[in-house]
Amino acid sequence: MSAVIGAGVASLLGQTFSGQAAGAYGQRTTVRAVDAGGTAGATSTSAAGQDRGGATALSLSAEARAYLATMASSADATQSAAAREKATAARGWFDAQYARLGIGSALVNGQTAVDFSKQDRATLAVVAAGTAELFSADERQAAGAALQARFDAALMPHAVIARHTGDYAGLYAAAADYLGEAGAEERATTTFTLQSKAVAEGLAAARAVFGRAPATGNANDPVRALLDRTAATPATKPPAGASAATVASAARTMLDAQAARARDAGTELVFDATRQSGQKADFGPFENRTLAAIVQNVGDAFSPEEVRAARAELGQRTRTGLLDAFNKSDGDPMSRNAALLGQYLSMSGEERAVLGFGQDYADGILANHRLLSSLQGLLGGGDGASLLSYI
User: Please, which pLDDT band fits residue 82 given cuts at 50, 70 and 90?
Assistant: First the structure.
């Protein structure tokens, strides 16, 4: 026997209806509400009272309906009291944290500044919902982010499985299970109601189409939000001077995000430009040093096709840069040397190693530059005597 917390019993009893509910061991029981003129306490157990399909018909009197409505109202009041109790305790906890940490908000520079790790899920839910109007906007936002992080942590393994198997229905089913574990306080929030409805719709859509994530178009769908976040290109890039391992890790994350987007769309990420199917890899957001880390296969983190594609992209960028340097020189050898040397100096050590631009390349440019400068000194004129003055 199971009970559903938060079911709208009172709303169901306020109208005449005829429906079927699952009884013990799957037996169906048909419950019919009757008006005040019905027989009080009447219960049909005779053959005539058997509904079609073998279900037992029960008629509820006005008194019975009133009793159930009272029970539902009492349950709602108990849940509200529990939520207020959680909210009051959370208010005291925030105030104690601020006093201990010497801060005045749950967010500092946009980042959560309090530790929610020891707060239970129900507490986070009542804070995020602004229960009893006890919490600031920052506190609600911080609690909501912590609640979302717990959802993400629980669902991420299922998201990985879905992307590799195409079984997105399993992901939505896991989300439904997670929401089903919510306590009465969380179930009473608007967020829970909206998310539960969105997940149910997403589950139905995922079961209808295998192999890709359903495009629910529902802003309250926490599963779709998780998929979109984990498939987004990272907003930050490795800082200047970051280690090769850090750069390679960033490159791996960027490629994985593109692969995730492709799988969610029901296709795959491809690196061969001649292929007619699949989602083509986009190296536009990748810096040259990041491409070089892929070519060097730092940490053995990249496949042969990823290495080949990155090498081709980096080579194309270098050829374009060299051609641009020649074009900007307007035929002036000195300007061309300066442009070529500038391009060399702008390269990271990884780029130079991958492209074969060693110190001898720079030395050759400098030697050529010195020779041209010397010839200009001999042929050019100026304050001192030059070769031209003798011609």
Answer: confident
